[in-house]
């Protein structure tokens, strides 16, 4: 039951749902997610921690950056099911649609150079 509750809590916030939807399209670092979501870096980090605790995402280091992506093989069947279903859900969210349009031009090197 604890895993299920942790996943449901992680998916109970629109910004965390949007993070999942963005990561389904492309691996992103915190600064890229911050720019797309328009949130403070600390807020984005808290969202990522909850998603990581729910086994929905994972990260890897790439030089100075920590890159987040959808977890390839979640242990939890709940996490696997949510991630599979999320591909078809929430495509009509206008905020998400605008973020997806900006996704190709969001670049961590450019963001950090500013």
What does this structure look like?
Helices cover 57% and strands 12% of the residues. It has 114 residues and is an alpha+beta fold. It has a single domain, classed as Arc Repressor Mutant, subunit A.
What is shown here, in short?
With 114 residues, the chain is of the alpha+beta class. Helices cover 57% and strands 12% of the residues.
- Class by SSE composition: alpha+beta
Give the strand tally: 3
The CATH class is: Mainly Alpha
What gross morphology would you assign?
Answer: globular
Helical proportion? Answer: 55-70%
End-to-end Cα distance, whole Å, is 45 Å
Relative strand content:
5-15%
Radius of gyration: 14 Å
Q: What count of domains describes the coordinates?
A: 1
Q: Going across the biggest sheet, name each strand in turn.
A: 1-3-2
User: Any idea of the CATH topology?
Assistant: Arc Repressor Mutant, subunit A
Tags for this model:
alpha+beta; 114 residues
Write the layout of secondary structure elements.
Layout: H1 2-10, H2 14-23, E1 28-29, H3 30-37, H4 41-53, E2 57-62, E3 65-70, H5 77-86, H6 94-102, H7 108-113
Helix pairs in contact: 1-4
